[in-house]
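A quick aside before the break. I want you to see a complete sequence-to-structure record at least once, exactly as it would be stored in a machine-readable document. Don't worry about memorizing anything.
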Amino acid sequence: MTQAGTTEPDDLALAAEFPAPERAAWQRLVAGVLRKSGALPEEFDGPPESLLTTRTYDGIEIQPLYTADDGAAPAGFPGLPPFVRGARPEGTGWDVRVLHANADPAAANRAVLADLENGATSLWLRVGGDSLAPAALGEALHGVHLDLAPVVLEPGEEYETAANALLAEFAGIPDSEVVGTLGADPVTLRARTGEAHDLAPAAQLTARLAAKHPKLRTLVADGLPYHEAGGSDAQELGAVIAAGVAYLRVLTDAGLSVDDAAARLEFRFAATADQFLTIAKLRAARRLWARVTEVSGGTAHGMKQHAVTSTAMLTQRDPWVNMLRTTVACFAAGVGGADAVTVLPFDAAIGQPDAFSRRIARNTQSILLEESKLAGVIDPAGGSWYVENLTDALANAAWREFTEIERQGGIEAALASGFVRDRLAETWEKRAKRLATRKDPITGVSEFPFLAEQPVERAPLPAVVPGGGLPKHRYAEPFERLRDRSDAHLAEHGERPKVFLATLGPLASHTARAMFASNLFQAGGIEPVNPGAVDDPVAAFRESGAAVACLCGSDKSYAAQANDVAAGLREAGAIAVLLAGKPSESYRGITGFAYTGCDALAVLTSTLETLGVK
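That is the input. The structure line, written in tokens, reads:
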């Protein structure tokens, strides 16, 4: 209401004094910018924004602008089918779940209690093999109030033994109040090892416990093996939904109803630093599972989701950057509506996390939950034209993956025949190419590496016995192997392999390409020797002690000097001369080219071999 003496309107319409924006006007502005940058060819007659369109590994087109005209399937409401906006109608945050894989029960117990005393709300324990023995669960959980801190097991083949050991620890707690997840997952065992594992014993265990422990989940459908094999988001979703369907079948065969069977399942997904795809993946997964349970004859079910920050995105080099990656992934998992989130410590790719890295991982979640108030709003991404369209597109792509797996006879048959492996390998080939060309950059490794960093050392993780299952990739590994070669060379010879940057022309004309070349060579552990602006680059090369040179200058300086300088460098002893720029037949004496979009791994590997680095 307008008060006396004031001129404010009754209804404040923000920006009402500005004209309504039109898409055509935006397109003209985009075209102007692209034309100035040289990215818009004169003969191009399509919409200019199409030049800014990108594609995901599932072929989903990401547009530079979304508006209300970009419709998507209705998302519904939180807590109601199809559960896109969340499995629960209230915003209560998520379960802060911490992973422990230490085989020493005393050490595991100390770490477990420290986590629970400092923000963790549940435990994820790897059991069996070279991890914690099932018989040691009691010692590892000594002092843990299991009625307050649920335990989730990852027991491998020993799921029945581990289940019995865990249930023995619930003495004094009513059977109806026992909460946790026993973690039986024969499908993932097959994916990890390549060996067949019968689903029937897991179903029988579930049927035996269902009536006695109504809040206890028994089975996990895990998407991590497919993600870690290099798969796309839709491939991970399709395989997980197919695993869930396989479990529904054996559970109903064991006598459970569809609704009871669905209530025994938990689903695990990878959360990555691509925040929007992670948000969309979790939202799409709930929609897919609701549809599966509905058409299976039950009610549309919400999905119990456990999001884990991706191991594939973690680096061993400059591991501190992993803190940023996992923060973004945790943010995305929370916004996407995950019920539980595990933030892996920043040193998880190196070895056993220490107390400091575990503390940072816990506090990452605490800050997002308590200080950032991320859980204060249900489905904060809901209504975003981009997120809703991405969720819909990803759900449809994942449904196609799922139905194709079903056509192959289900997830077990698709794993046994190699169908899943081949599909994932196709995606990994595309991903590996983008990693090699740095189109998918890895900060601190393929981009902006720090050669002087001191390696972080940790106690080794439990050994993983190689099998015939799906491969396991870390995106940074190829570049890190080159860095390992450089470190070995440094230890043996007292210096790193070097490349001399032969700068042509004044400082302003060579700075950009010299910086590019310096960044590129360091990604392979090669020390760049940059003399700056010099009158005689050949003389500077002789004084540098390097055996390989790289010309750095402008196109104009290349046209005027490149051939003569390259010849001089070869006469001065250079065994190879590269040029920082696009390949051209007009250059003589040049043995290789380094430019934006080149195969950086190939350039670095070739340079190390030329320098004789083993």
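Two observations worth writing down. The chain has a mean pLDDT of 93. The two ends are 79 Å apart (CA to CA). We'll return to this after the break.
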